[in-house]
Design brief:
single chain; mainly alpha; 0% strand
Length: 288
C-alpha cells in the first residue's frame, strides 16, 4: 500500500522545526516506515533466536533487573562475558554484518522518498534499497576502513570531525544516485560551515533514540522476562522479540532526521526549491 507524502514545502528549517518534521513524517507515514523498520530487523532477530544468542542477552537482562538496587552487582554484569561462541552463532554474526547495509539503507530510502514528496510503498522501498546494496556496502566499507586506520594514525577528535562531515553520505547516495566516493564528497561539501549544527542535531537525535530503545526495551523485555507459568526459553524469546520490535520502531528517527537535514542543507546552500529537489531525487541525479 502506498503512503501519502509528507505535507509542507522543503525549506530551511530551525533545529526545532527539523525535529518536529521528523516526528510528523514518521506519524503521517507510520504504516510504511514502521513496516519497513520491522521487516529489515526481522533477519537479525531470527538469527538471534535461531543461534541462541538471545539467551545470553535474556539472562543478562534478568540478572540486571534482579540487581537493580545493587550497584556493585550491576557493575559486575557489565564486565561479564555473555557472547556465545558456537559456529552457528559466528555464521549468524557474519550474515548480520552483510545485512547491515540493506537494513540501515532501507530506512534512508524510505525517508528520501517521503521527504521528496513522492508516495512510497513497502515494496518500492525494499526494491530501491536492494538496487543500491553494492553502493551501500562500499560506503560502509570505506567508513569502517577510515575508522580503523584513523584511530591508529590520527587523533580521535579528527576522526569525529571527519565522520560528522560524512554523516549525510547515505541520504546523498539515495537522493542523487551517486556512488560511495561521490556520496562522501557531497556530504563533505554540504556539511561545510554547518559542522557544529550538524553535530548538535546528530547528538540530540542519537541520545533520544537510545533513551527510547533502552527505556522501552528494558520495560517490555523486563515484563516478558518474568511472565508467570511460562518456560524460561519461551520467556527469553518473547522478551527478545518485544525488545527488538521496540528498537526497530525507534530506529527510523535518525535516518529521517538526517534525510531532512540533507534536504535542508541543499535548500540553504544551493537554493533549490521543492520541485527541483523532488525531480532530482526521483531521477537519482546529482546537481550540476
Amino acid at each position: 500500500m502506498a503512503s501519502p507524502a509528507v505535507s509542507g514545502p522543503i525549506r530551511p528549517r530551525a533545529v526545532s522545526e527539523l525535529l518536529d518534521d521528523t516526528f510528523y513524517l514518521y506519524r503521517r507515514n507510520f504504516q510504511v516506515v514502521a513496516c519497513v523498520a520491522v521487516l529489515v530487523a526481522l533477519p537479525r532477530l531470527i538469527l538471534s533466536l535461531a543461534s541462541g544468542a538471545y539467551l545470553a542477552s535474556f539472562n543478562l537482562l534478568q540478572r540486571a533487573i534482579s540487581s537493580v538496587n545493587d550497584p556493585a552487582a550491576l557493575q559486575g554484569l557489565m564486565g561479564a562475558g555473555n557472547v556465545p561462541n558456537s559456529p552457528f552463532y559466528l555464521f549468524a554474526s557474519l550474515l548480520q554484518l552483510l545485512l547491515i547495509p540493506f537494513s540501515a539503507g532501507a530506512l534512508y530510502q524510505a525517508a528520501v522518498e517521503l521527504a521528496a514528496h513522492r508516495p512510497a510503498s513497502i515494496g518500492s522501498v525494499l526494491v530501491g534499497t536492494l538496487r543500491r546494496y553494492l553502493g551501500l556496502l562500499g560506503l560502509m566499507l570505506l567508513v569502517v576502513l577510515f575508522l580503523l586506520t584513523g584511530l591508529l594514525v590520527v587523533t580521535l577528535p579528527l576522526v569525529i570531525w571527519v565522520v560528522v562531515r560524512w554523516i549525510l553520505s547515505t541520504p546523498v547516495l539515495f537522493a542523487e544516485g551517486v556512488g560511495p566516493v561521490r556520496a562522501l564528497a557531497r556530504s563533505w561539501q554540504l556539511v561545510k560551515g554547518e559542522w557544529w549544527r550538524t553535530l548538535g542535531i546528530l547528538l540530540l537525535v542519537v541520545i533520544m533514540v537510545d533513551l527510547i530503545q533502552i527505556v522501552l526495551g528494558f520495560f517490555v523485555g523486563g515484563v516478558a522476562a518474568f511472565l508467570p507459568g511460562v518456560d524460561a526459553t519461551v520467556r527469553a524469546a518473547v522478551s527478545t522479540t518485544l525488545a527488538g520490535v521496540v528498537a526497530a520502531l525507534a530506529g527510523p528517527l535518525l535516518p529521517i532526521t538526517l534525510t531532512l537535514l540533507y534536504f535542508d542543507m541543499r535548500v540553504r546552500k544551493e537554493g533549490y526549491d521543492l520541485e527541483e529537489l523532488a525531480l532530482q531525487a526521483a531521477q537519482g541525479t546529482a546537481p550540476a
